[in-house]
Amino acid sequence: MLFWMIAAVLTLGASLAVLLPLAAQPVSGISDADHDLEVYRDQLDELERDLARGLIQQAEAEQARAEIGRRILRLSASRQEQDKKQRPFSLRLVSVTAVLAVPLISWGVYARLGSPDIPSQPLQERLARNLVDNTVDELIARAETHLAANPSDGRGWEVLAPIYMRMQRFDDAAQAYGKAIEFSGSDAQRQSALGEALASASGGQITGQARAAFEAALKHDPANPKAQFFLAMALAQEGRMAEAIAGWTQIRDAAVEGSPWRNAAERALAQAEQVAGQVVGQVNERGPGQAEVEAAAALSGEDRAEMISGMVERLDERLRENPADGEGWKQLVRSYLVLGDEHRARDALSRGVEALGADSEPARSLIAFAASNGLEMMEQVQ
């Protein structure tokens, strides 16, 4: 009953706030117009008295009468226009009916489909229930409440951090793992988990903080597969593909069949093989001959990556000797991009533009080619 009384009062207040302006007849402003008209009449009387006393000439009086007459005509036209704008009674009736219909219909639907008799469920009471009866959000709220009161509970932070990871709250997960390390001590598992959270929070990029966490994990356990995997990924992001492949190969060979990190390493190696194949396709005209291409295809992943890097280096050296080769510069820029080494790709672009002449057609073609591959010129390179 209390619910319905409160709802009725609130509904009445909201309805009146809308109904009163709709039902009221708008102020027409007639009183102001009547006052102005009275003023103009007084001006006409005063004009006649001045004319009778000879204070003004007849011509001046005629001009003054004409001006006052024009003002009276404008005032009359304004009053007529304002009268036309008055809200029709039918429109006000429809508006009032629509406003009244909303709460009536809402109440009817809620009375039939709603559940006004369900008792309130404060968060504190829900958290006090048996853990089995709590939702995931309530369990997290319970843990956060506990940790707010006991911030030095390292075990609590360590339990909460993986839940944050599964919910993709990576920044919160990284903070929780940091707290776990601070209060429970550093070990390989906590450090590698911290690095993974930091890498996930940065969109997969291995930042300096993430790298430091993985390196700390390897100090505790040199065979930690998670730290090894992500450090190899960091090498690949730096364009050091041969070293990255060596790292993933080590994980694959050391892990048992079917283990998650072995599967992750195999996927990374397959992707690295695909990248290496793309580079072969990019440099096969100006880099190695057909025999070298076939030999590269037969090599293991690590050896193949080293061979590809050597092919690209030889192409780079050839362009230093013959810098007028516009197509060669395109091949070099593209090769470095495929290898993931954007820094060297940008350096090759700058050197190529400088060698070809910034205003030349080959240089403009090189710049356009680089832009089509996602590499823009630095501001200082014109």
Spell out the blueprint of helices and strands.
Blueprint lengths: L1 H22 L6 H23 L5 H27 L4 H25 L9 H5 L8 H14 L4 H13 L3 H15 L3 H14 L6 H13 L4 H13 L3 H14 L5 H24 L6 H9 L2 H21 L4 H13 L3 H15 L4 H12 L10
Protein name: C-type cytochrome biogenesis protein CcmI
Subcellular location: Cell envelope
Keywords: Coiled coil, Cytochrome c-type biogenesis, Repeat, TPR repeat
Would you kindly provide a written description of the structure presented here, covering whatever features stand out?
With 382 residues, the chain is an all-alpha fold. It folds into three domains: 100 residues, no CATH class; 96 residues, Serine Threonine Protein Phosphatase 5, Tetratricopeptide repeat, CATH 1.25.40.10; 124 residues, no CATH class. 76% of the residues lie in helices and 0% in strands. It has 18 helices and no strands. Helix 16 packs parallel to helix 18. It is flat and about 120 Å long. The two termini are 78 Å apart. About 4% of the residues have low confidence.
Measured as a percent range, the helix fraction is: over 70%
Following the backbone from N to C, one meets helices and strands in this order, namely HHHHHHHHHHHHHHHHHH
**Spatial shape:** flat
| Percent in strands | under 5%
Distance between the termini: 78 Å
User: Sheet with the most strands?
Assistant: none
Number of domains: 3
Protein name: C-type cytochrome biogenesis protein CcmI
Domain Cytochrome c-type biogenesis protein H TPR: 128-253
InterPro entries: C-type_cytochrome_biogenesis (IPR051263), Cyt_c_biogenesis_CcmI (IPR017560), TPR-like_helical_dom_sf (IPR011990), TPR_CcmH_CycH (IPR056413), TPR_rpt (IPR019734)
Organism: Aquamicrobium segne
